[in-house]
């Protein structure tokens, strides 16, 4: 059955692959991103998701031709690297405005139509890194963790209308995310260690999972009748970090993370 699917952050990377994947499957797909994107498989609506007026206008545009909105995939987001000490208030607010506020504004815009039809599926794209404070990515971890907690709260609030919400925690995916990360100024005390971690970080992305595999996994989620609050998708070495954090003593876990990030 064809669904009406809205995906944010579709100008490149995972978002573009998702939009084309579901469009090829016969779904009515609308891609919202700041840049217009040419594709025969989905309709692009230029939208800055941090601008609530723009979000409302985009949803109104969708509803000119659609009677329902079945799925929202909140994929738009941004990475940020740098030491906590060096991060400015402006950097932090910019990151949270996109990764958290933008996602909330999108959900608020589609929920009335989902309630009207007594059905909806919302996937908030998070990160395995939201479950732990990653070195030199502290605020990225924090922004995604905040989105996770909002997702958990919303599951209680919208379940009476058969609306399902989940966080999809992704590991490293092979995309151009390194080109689009916000990078704060790195002060001298951190420079040597940061350069080592940053190089490793980029190599992990280069060896990451193909976006098409993510699309296939999301398709399997959309076919489920019931959702868990959290799904973890990525290579074993990254996914295993989540249960280990739950069961290991903090000091032991930190030592493992230091080794993984070559900080020891």
UniProtKB/TrEMBL annotation:
Residue intervals passing through the bilayer: none
Originating organism: Chryseobacterium populi
Domain of life assignment: Bacteria
A Pfam family it matches: adh_short
InterPro entries the record matches: NAD(P)-bd_dom_sf, SDR_fam, SDR_oxidoreductase
A single GO molecular function term of this UniProt record: oxidoreductase activity
Name under which the protein is recorded: Short-chain alcohol dehydrogenase
Keyword set, alphabetical order: Oxidoreductase
Family the entry assigns: Belongs to the short-chain dehydrogenases/reductases (SDR) family.
């Amino acid at each position: 059955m064809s669904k009406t699917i809205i995906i944010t952050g579709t100008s490149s990377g995972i978002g573009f692959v998702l939009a084309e994947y579901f469009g090829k499957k016969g779904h009515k797909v609308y891609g919202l991103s700041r840049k217009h994107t040419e594709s025969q498989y989905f309709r692009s609506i230029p939208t800055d998701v941090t601008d609530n007026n723009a979000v409302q206008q985009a949803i109104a545009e969708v509803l000119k031709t659609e009677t329902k909105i079945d799925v929202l995939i909140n994929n738009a987001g941004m990475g940020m690297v740098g030491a906590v000490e060096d991060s400015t208030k402006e950097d932090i607010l910019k990151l949270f405005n996109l990764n958290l506020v933008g996602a909330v504004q999108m959900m608020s815009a589609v929920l009335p139509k989902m309630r009207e039809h007594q059905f909806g599926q919302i996937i908030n794209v998070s990160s395995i890194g939201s479950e732990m404070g990653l070195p030199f990515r502290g605020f990225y971890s924090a922004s995604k963790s905040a989105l996770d907690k909002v997702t958990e709260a919303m599951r209680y609030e919208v379940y009476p209308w058969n609306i399902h919400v989940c966080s999809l925690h992704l590991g490293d995916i092979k995309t151009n995310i390194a080109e689009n990360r916000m990078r704060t100024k790195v002060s001298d005390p951190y420079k040597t260690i940061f350069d080592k971690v940053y190089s490793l970080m980029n190599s992990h992305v280069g060896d990451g999972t193909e976006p098409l595999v993510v699309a296939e996994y999301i398709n399997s989620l959309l076919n489920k009748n019931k959702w868990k609050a959290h799904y973890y998708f990525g290579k074993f070495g990254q996914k295993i970090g989540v249960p280990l954090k739950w069961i290991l003593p903090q000091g032991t876990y930190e030592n493992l993370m230091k080794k993984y990030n070559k900080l020891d």
